[in-house]
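**Archive record**
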Amino acid sequence: MLVSDADGRLAHAEMRFGDGYIIVDSEWADHVASPASVGGMNAQAVYVRLQQDLDAHCEKARAAGAEIVEEPADHFYGERQYRARDPEGHVWTFTRTVRVVPKDEAERLTGLRIEGWHS
C-alpha cells in the first residue's frame, strides 16, 4: 500500500508478506524523522530474508530507483546479501541463505565468541 500527500509525496508505505508487515512512514509528526533530515544516519537496521533470486531482486530495486550501496556478495556466515538505500535514505539489507555455517567455523573466521548461533 502507498499513501501520498496532496503534493504527491510518499507519506506511508506498507509491504505485506503472509501475516507480516513492513511499514515505512515519512516525516508526518515531530517524533518521526527520515535519514534525509538527520545527516543520512539510520537509527534502525532492516534485514529482509528472501527466498527468490537475490541478484534479480537487486536489479529490480535498482530499476525502481534504489541506490545500491553494497552490491550482492556472499559472506562467511552463509548469506548472500546486498544493501539498498531508498529515496528517503533508509538502508535495507536483503539477504538469502546460501549455506549453513557451523558455529565453530563462524567463531574461527571472526575471532569472536558467539552465543545463540542460528545454525
About this structure: The chain has two helices and seven strands. The CA atoms of residues 103 and 115 lie 9 Å apart. The first helix runs from residue 54 to 63.
